[in-house]
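Section handout 9: paired folding examples.
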Amino acid sequence: MYLIAFPLLLIPFALYNMVLFLLSLPFTDTLFSIPLIEGRRLPVTTGELLLAIAILLIYVEAIKASRVRKAITDHVLSFILFAAMVAELVLVPQATTPTLLLLAVLGFADLLIGLSVTVRPKPQELPLEESYQHDRY
């Protein structure tokens, strides 16, 4: 329960910035390839791997949002992370890549998932039929 208020998309966003600024690697470099039938191979690039990690973390965020009542802190942190992604995308010329654009879209989806699950209406209580005992004469 310690990671409830931690936005998990911060992990791929931090990895994105490490790859871009510390390692200076292009996101189009092939990291590995997946073997397919008939000798074909599917190359997986750095950006694609980062997005796959982010998509899996969005799934965990959705489960986390549906199981635990999210506090306002979770929504604020998700919004700050989304705003940071968009700001970096718009303001930093080196960071203008499709990978960051898709990470920002996932950040927006995380924000919407958290809000829509939290704001959902409470289930209506169904009145149970009263059991009538018939008077016997």
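Moving on to protein 2 of 2.
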Amino acid sequence: MVVDALPGAGFDQNSRIRAVRAKADAFVTEASRNQNFGRTRELFVDASPTVRTYVRFDVDLKLGDVRHVTLLLYSRRRLRTGYQARLVRSDWREARITYVNAPRLAPTFVASGPVRARAWKAVDVTSLVAGAQDSISFVLTTTSVGGGVFSSRETGLHGPRLVVETMRNDTTQSTTTTTAKLPRAP
């Protein structure tokens, strides 16, 4: 995966950057309210009928000083209006989530802006995950009719990623000195 730059990434020697693959993802649709789409290779968002995508990452944001968190999705189709990423606070399971039992939408979101086809889109979600726990879930929505298509975790290399930049906590170093007796010269 090649990413030219992540929005807000600090590239200094005191930061640590890790990319975490999605642990679960699925889409839900108003057109098939009780059907589960947790094992598909594509994730969808659409305004009519309503289609939403849920993505979960297992990542510990309590360790260190979190500087930036970026959501990376690989788009298969252009989406001029982009999508909105919202934090999900309720639990959900990839193999069981449906439109009927999906967690409710949070009122606050981060907008992606326009999305190009066959390209990675990086969205800074730091403001959404402040104080988050070990598991972070997002729901993706859009106002676009015709919607967007993203690669799911089942695709492997193009699956969703969460890039976390933290300040390093390992600034303390220790040094051990050993003194040995050398033989005397004759």
